[in-house]
Structures are given as structure tokens and as C-alpha cells.
Amino acid sequence: MEPQNYKMIIAYDGSRYYGFEHQPDKDTIQGRLENVISRIAGVEKEELEILGAGRTDAGVHAEGMVISVRLSLSLSPEELKAEMNRYLPDDIACREVKIASDRFHPRYNAVGKTYRYTCYIGDSKDVFRRKFSLPLSFRPDVPAMEEAASYLLGKHDFKSFCGNARMKKSTVRIVDEISIKEKKSFLYFTFHGTGFLQYMVRILVGTLLLVGEGKLRPAEVRDILEAKDRSLAGPTAPAKGLCLMNVDYM
């Protein structure tokens, strides 16, 4: 049977994994997927090439990571999805399987991504969402953070918000949406853009939270952006609050 290019949407709780990308002797999402898909397809893991839409870091979660893999199978997409979920651990799920074109690549064909960062702002200790949100000890000033976020919209050099000091490629990115919403005991930061640098969303959140705490003025975020100096931006927010929500394709 001729191999087909399968596109899958994968959700995972990244708490106990060393990120998405396969690493020798490390427990990763890609490694777990390799184990399961090789078992279903009856091939060696080394024969598989699982391509991902991105590289979420250790501790980061996803609701909509997109992967692709070429397989020769007699199973339908729905049957493959069922087999995936049968063997995957409880903190990883296959949400959708489709047959894509031979030329589909989950990273190169992506035109946008949505990330959400969650903070807990409730009065009592949160037990059930502790692995997925950052607890705050203060009530942030949302209008001030929204003003600061407005300076980040558009096409900019985000070098000040890049966690890779040795980055040799362009640090110019387009961020076309930043929303900051309170809902019950949670504060949600949502970012949409064409792509994001290493730790970029987490550094943006860390910087905006300084504004929300009154430690930075909103206009100072514009100055930090223009300075192209990582040392001027806020701390990198913990990984556990970040989730890749969706990847856009034409």
C-alpha cells in the first residue's frame, strides 16, 4: 500500500515532559508519539518522521498541536485515531486524523498560531488547575496591561522578548492580536501571530504582569520593544501557564 501523509491534531498536558521535540533519553511528546505510531504501523521508530508545527518547551501544554507523518496503513483515519488514543498515555490525546496532501508540512504551511497564558487570581488556593495556571499574589490592572499590549501589535523586531541570546535568524515577527480577559477566578492572555520566538509569549506575559502590578508604565513596554535588549524586559513566566491553542492553515 502506498504511504499517505496523515495530519493529526494532538492535545497534551506537558507537565511531565521535556517539551514536544524528541530528545535522546528524555521523555517528550514526540517520543511518546513515535512509540505509539510505530506500534500501530508495525515499523521501527527510526523509520518514522513525525513533523510538528512547533517545539513547545518543557512543561508547556497544547490543545491543538498539529503533526504529520507518512504511513502505509489499511486503517481509516477514524480507526487510526481510535488506536492512537488506545495506546497513548492519559495526558496525551489524538483529537483528529485526516489524510493531507503529500506536500503538507505542519510547520512550513502554518500561517498563524494562537497561544493562551492562564493566571489564577482567585482568593482561595486553587487545587485543580495548579498545573495549568500561574497564581498571582496581586490583582492586576487589566486596562494598563491592555494599553501596554497595544504597543506590541503589528510587525516588530521582538529581540527584547526572545529567550535565545544566540539567535542568528531574524527576530522580526507579526503579532496581530493580544487579548487580556478576566473570567471568574482566572486571567487569560491570548496571543495570535504569524510565529513566535523561543520563550517569547512567556516573556511578553512576564513583562505585561509587571505593568499590571504597577512596576512598569505601559509606555515603557514600547521603549523595551524598541531597545532590542532582553535584559530590559520582564521575567520569563513559568511554562505551566502556557498552552498552544491552535495552528492556522490556508
Question: How would you characterize the overall build of this protein?
Answer:
With 250 residues, the chain is an alpha+beta fold. It has two domains: 4-100, Pseudouridine synthase I, catalytic domain, N-terminal subdomain (Alpha-Beta Plaits), CATH 3.30.70; 111-249, 2-Layer Sandwich (Alpha-Beta Plaits), CATH 3.30.70. The protein is 22% helix and 30% strand. The protein has helices at residues 29-41, 77-87, 142-150, 200-212, 218-227, and strands at 4-12, 51-52, 61-71, 92-100, 110-120, 134-135, 154-157, 172-183, 186-193, 242-249. Strands 1, 2, 3, 4, 5, 6, 7, 8, 9 and 10 form a ten-stranded mixed beta sheet that branches. Strand 2 and strand 3 (61-71) form a beta hairpin. The two termini are 29 Å apart. The mean pLDDT is 96.
For the report, how would you describe the main beta sheet? Answer: 10 strands, mixed
CATH superfamily grouping of the largest domain: Pseudouridine synthase I, catalytic domain, C-terminal subdomain
Strand content: 25-35%
Apparent shape? globular
Alpha-carbon Rg, integer: 19 Å
Count of individual beta strands: 10
Overall average pLDDT = 96
Distance between the termini: 29 Å
Counted by DSSP, the helix tally is 5
What is the CATH topology classification name of the largest domain? Alpha-Beta Plaits
Number of domains: 2
In sequence order, what are the helices and strands, one letter per element?
EHEEHEEEHEEEHHE
Q: Which stretches are poorly predicted, pLDDT < 50 over at least 5 residues?
A: none
The chain-level structural class is alpha+beta
